[in-house]
Amino acid sequence: RLSQVLQARGIRCVILAPAENEAETNEMDWTPFTVVSLEPPALDARLPHAGLSHYNNVLRCWHELSYRGITRVGFISRGDSHEFTQGQGLAAHAYQQSRCCPPHDRIPDLNLSADTPADQLCTWLQTHRPVAVISSEPIHPLLPKTSRLKPPDQFSYVSLDVLSEEAADVSGIDPGMDRLGETVVETLNQLQQRGLTGQAPSPVGTQITGIWRDGSTLAEPVVL
Questions:
Q1: Whole-model pTM?
Q2: Nearest to 89 by CA among 60, 132, 69
Q3: Which of 128, 189, 203, 213 is 20 to 30 A away from residue 117, measured at CA?
Q4: Mean pLDDT in each 10-residue stretch from start to end of the chain (224 residues)?
Q5: 146: Cβ–Cβ under 8 A, 6 or more apart, which residues?
Q6: How far is the C-alpha of 132 from the C-alpha of 105, rounded, in Å?
């Protein structure tokens, strides 16, 4: 029915948002449309796509921390962000931990809930005392003004989205949302010019790797 409605309205090109529930079967008839998906689509939808390189962005953060002699690193996320990124950030962090940290010294990941994120964060910082934190969520608003647990004095802080940070001069990744939007539109335009519609036999995807931004929340390199 949705396919019929779109055709009746003269819509021939579609940018598909990430699926809320990838377990649901894709029953949409994409044959009449030129389609590009934001992030890889559900596995039963063979569509061209473009998305952020969440895995490589976390690896880049680890590279900057390791360069400074920091290997005891904690990872913070919120809610269902793991599902949205298909666990890529967690996978990259776990991989780097396995390479750099002995099992007894690895810091458990923190997944902030919607109820008491500030309490969760402070308890986690006080309990595990990470030397550095990589976070997909801004943490400055969650830290009480009276708290001594603030970057960069007590720990180095690296953000996976510096553009979403309220605090100024945060070290971390500019994920490239503008470049992602440009890539999706360019891909859609190219497919339309070639007259390609519907699902592809072997869909091609493009990953946008973020850009590192230096800031004041990261410790200086260790001079050996």
A1: 0.88
A2: 60
A3: 213
A4: 91 87 72 92 85 96 93 89 80 94 91 89 93 93 77 90 90 96 95 92 92 90 53
A5: none
A6: 13
